[in-house]
Specification:
33% helix; alpha+beta; 144 residues; Aldehyde Oxidoreductase, domain 3; 7-stranded mixed sheet; 3 helices; single chain; elongated
Length: 144
Amino acid sequence: MRVVTRIVEGPVIAENLAQARADRDLAGAPDETGARVSFEGVVRRRENDPHQDRVRTLEALDYEVYESMAEQGLATLAHSIGTRHGLQAIVALHSRGRVRVGEVSFVLEVHAAHRAPAIAAMTEFIDALKRDVPIWKRPVWAGA
């Protein structure tokens, strides 16, 4: 199984994904891959503000990362989920720093022989990432 995990500065852009694919020779899908599922986490305009118990307008999100632990956590998670679901490859890129509304803060790409394990792996990865990897977001409210 091929695994690429990275923390990138600012928004995740197409060049980040292209470089990650090139580094692990993922530009073309292997013959065994029947499903390549991709997810992009995009910073949305409106976010719940738990301190004011209302929805507010965002300008951006600032992502704080405990670098060494986050990199290790992403890699461990990718290997664990990839093995459990029999994946051919997994690519996970997450932002550090400021990501504005409409920009991508997270990309996950899963390669598998079949659709069902690819989708199951994607859902499991995202849930575990939010729960277990030391990456925190801080809202930058519009007009604040």
